[in-house]
Amino acid sequence: MTDLYTPFLEATRNVFHLMLDLSNISDQPAEWLGNEEELDVSIGFIGDLKGEVIYRLPHQTSLGIVTIMSGMEFDAVDEFVTSAISEIANIISGNVLTMLAEKDLTCDILPPVLKSLDSGEDYEFQTNILITSEVGEVCLDIRLEPAE
Amino acid sequence: MLWKEKYELGVPLIDEQHKELFKRVESFMQVLRMASSWEDKVEKVNETLDFMNTYVVEHFRDEEAFQQEIGYPGEEEHKKVHADMVNYVIAVTEEYKNSGYDEQLIQKFAGKLMAWLINHVASEDQRIAAYAISKGVDKHD
Question: A119 CB near a chain B CB, below 8 Å?
């Protein structure tokens, strides 16, 4: 199956660089151990690929990102913060669509939804990208497979 | 500060409108995040929302006119992005008014608006400037 790790990593790098001025970013495929206080935003994929990508952010990371964008201090992951992070997940996934189109994969994304329960379904391409930057860690939990 | 110099396209009319838009969104966020009661904030929030409904449309129209003027190949796609945002602002405004000025709804709107605006100006609009430069178009016309 087409490499999906690289497009998601590159899209995240680009968005973090352009929107947050974060350029010192490292990545590794790693198991996400979870965090008691985390925001999980799922973006559904349809088209040539189906499934979802869950953006998992510890609250400190979400607060750091929104502080960089707004120049204001935030101390709780409320409606404002959740909505801003959901839009970033949407933007990253939108950038991935462009990269997939270059590989002749036509996909679309669904509006962000907060993830509460884990479906536990198996997908052909299932991996976690752990991205570390100055604001903390973000895990991209990718669960995709070719549409039948 | 929400506005950054790196967002400038070098097109005076569009840059001025972007600065005004960022200034209004920043002031909107400052009011929203104030540690005071919703009753104290709601009037200012409503004023800004009314402004967004008219100014955003005006700005998008001017930006689209510039794209047409320089023959920007991504014009139609960019127009759709603008139209989607205008429809979103209109829909939220209606829902907000119908809800009797629900604060959570407007906090959610502001979070998305901030992230959308930064990405749109820092990324998507920069492609217009890059195209204008590549074609040797005088952006000050």
Answer: no
